[in-house]
From TrEMBL:
Name of the protein in question: Flagellar biosynthetic protein FlhB
Protein encoded by which gene: flhB
Region (Disordered): 1-28
Membrane topology classification: Multi-pass membrane protein
Keywords linked to the UniProt accession: Bacterial flagellum biogenesis, Bacterial flagellum protein export, Cell membrane, Cell projection, Cilium, Flagellum, Membrane, Protein transport, Transmembrane, Transmembrane helix, Transport
Any one GO BP annotation for this protein: protein secretion
Lineage: Bacteria, Pseudomonadati, Thermodesulfobacteriota, Desulfovibrionia, Desulfovibrionales
Length: 357
């Protein structure tokens, strides 16, 4: 069926396909299982027919030999029913199991491994009479299914006609044939009818499989906007992510500014960089960076430092090195010990207590 929305030009994404499979929506041809099960049944009967015939002859012989002596009591009839059921089961069960296995394999090859509990949930929208009638009489899918059914019925009906027409001249001699010969002839004709019907059935099944998969892909197609929206959901909306990143940076900056009054000195570039340091031998064996920033944030750090009378010292290479090499909350590396120690030694606070606070 052609897609109804011409804007749906994009192939379905993996997420869209997973969602469809989770809802039990998979490309599954109805004609392929019918055809292959019919073929499998024909092959099974052809291979197993001698055994079935032998078992049936045994049953007939048993009935003919014991019919006169059989006493039809309730218990005897019940036992006979169980015995016949067991015999029929032994004859037919292997064929039925083989057909079930073929049907399972064909379905599994079509849809793969699938477990969709949502299929069992009741969908009350399907009980809408008006929509149901529209789907039944107006839907193109209904017309396509009707066409397939008519074509399949025609194939199955034409095959016996062709065989019977070609065998008309053999019917009269059957009047003189034995029952066994008549039975063999009927089985052969039945097998020939099946063979005549199987080839067009196989062609129809292959065509239906192709159409089913094509129609499934067409119905799964998405618009460009749907693809973009799904990508945004998977990767995150860039605008939202930018806002979140900005808020996180604002929170981090606020926390750093709250720590600036605890600093012993702020090292500046003097314009672009600002790094707040604190040294307490009890807390850490080396100075720790409490805050750092560039441009606007650097100006805010210096403003807070002035408000709380924290010393500000200009040292261009040291400010740049501290900003690039040390994260907030970390101790300075050994290669910067001497430069930072010289800076701290110039402060009155550390001149009074050179060994710590």
């Amino acid at each position: 069926m052609p897609q109804q929305d011409p804007s749906r030009t994009e192939q379905a994404t993996p997420k869209r396909r997973r969602k469809a499979r989770g809802e039990g929506n998979v490309p599954k041809s109805q004609e392929v299982p019918k055809t292959f099960v019919t073929m499998a049944g024909t092959i099974a009967l052809y291979v197993y027919m001698d055994h079935i015939a032998s078992e049936m002859m045994g049953l007939y012989e048993h009935f003919f030999r014991n019919a006169v002596m059989f006493e039809a009591t309730p218990q005897a009839v019940y036992d006979l029913l169980l015995w016949i059921s067991g015999k029929l089961a032994l004859m037919l069960l292997p064929i039925m199991l083989f057909l079930a296995l073929v049907a399972y394999v064909v379905i599994r090859l079509q849809v793969g491994k699938l477990w969709a509990p949502k299929v069992f949930k009741p969908k009350f929208a399907r009980f809408n009479l008006i929509k149901g009638l529209k789907r039944l009489f107006i839907s193109p899918q209904t017309l396509i299914r009707l066409g397939k059914s008519i074509l399949m019925a025609a194939v199955i009906g034409i095959a016996p006609y062709i065989v019977i027409r070609n065998e008309m001249h053999h019917f009269l001699p059957l009047f003189y044939a034995t029952p066994t010969a008549i039975g063999v002839y009927m089985l052969e004709m039945g097998m020939k009818m099946v063979k005549y019907a199987m080839l067009p059935m196989l062609v129809i099944a292959i065509a239906d499989l192709w159409y089913t998969r094509w129609d499934y892909e067409e119905n799964l197609k998405m618009t460009k906007d749907e693809v973009k929206d799904e990508r945004k959901q998977a990767e995150g909306d860039p605008a939202v992510k930018a806002q979140q990143r900005q808020k996180m940076m604002e929170v981090m900056a606020q926390r750093m500014l709250e720590n600036v009054p605890k600093a012993d000195v702020v090292v500046t570039n003097p314009t672009h960089y600002a790094v707040a340091l604190r040294y307490d031998a009890v807390e850490a064996p080396a100075p720790v960076v409490l805050a750092k920033g560039v441009d606007h944030l650097a100006e805010r750090i210096k403003e807070v430092a002035r408000e709380h009378r924290v010393p500000i010292r200009e040292n261009v290479p040291l400010a740049r090195a501290l900003y690039r090499q040390v994260e907030v909350g970390d101790m300075i590396p050994e290669e910067l010990y001497q430069a930072v120690a010289s800076l701290l030694a110039s402060l009155m606070k550390f001149k009074a207590r050179p060994q710590g606070r």
